[in-house]
Amino acid sequence: MSLSSTPSTPSTPSTRRPTLAACLFLATCAGWLSVVPAQAADLTVVVSNITSNAGNVMVGLFDSAAAFPKTVTQGVLAAAAGRDATGRVTLVLRDLTPGTYAVSAYHDLNGNGQLDSNLMGLPTEPYGFSNNARGSFGPPSFQAASVALPTQGLAIELKVQ
């Protein structure tokens, strides 16, 4: 059934009106598009020196010096068993707003979801930061570990130790 203005004439493509369902579909699609960032980029993180198939490789993304290294903006994990022959695991942080970020990673050997430490507070599991930055007595600064994510995306490699 057509919704043309003259029901007695057959509808042609030029006289058809959109159906309610078509209008709702278009409105829904427009709503979906409005929640996707206008410019989204992916950050590919290759974590190297994964020496065991045990546990998971955890990656955290930080969007400011105030958040680094405590408050993760976005995180991903992958099974360490997915490492390649050279001991690398690749993870992708998707749909990020281009900008400046720092990345941390660790090999959660026992799979408990946290970076374990000894009585002195020193990590007992392998960890690392973007730019392979190291701190003297604690984590490196956000500035030392930061990377600029352009609109076309970026791939970085960091080594856990």
Count of extended strands: 8
How far apart are the termini?
Answer: 69 Å
Helix-residue proportion: 10-25%
Strand content: 25-35%
- Describe the global form: globular
CATH architecture of the largest domain: Sandwich
Main sheet attributes: strand count, strand direction, barrel closure: 5 strands, antiparallel
Q: What's the overall average pLDDT, rounded? A: 85
Question: Which structural class fits the helix and strand makeup?
Answer: mainly beta
Report the uncertain regions: 1-8, 20-34
Total count of helical runs of at least 4 residues: 2
Which fold does the CATH topology of the largest domain refer to? Immunoglobulin-like
Please provide the ordered H/E string of secondary-structure elements. HEEEEEEHEE
Tell me the Rg in angstroms: 24 Å
Total tally of structural domains: 2
Overview of this protein structure:
By secondary structure, this protein is mainly β. It folds into two domains: 1-36; 41-159, Sandwich (Immunoglobulin-like), CATH 2.60.40. Helices cover 12% and strands 32% of the residues. It has two helices and eight strands, in the order H-E-E-E-E-E-E-H-E-E. It has helices at 20-35, 142-145, and strands spanning 41-48, 56-62, 74-79, 89-96, 99-108, 127-129, 146-149, 154-159. Strands 2, 3, 5, 6 and 7 form a five-stranded antiparallel β-sheet that branches. The chain is globular, with a radius of gyration of 24 Å. The model is unreliable at 1-8 and 20-34 (pLDDT under 50).
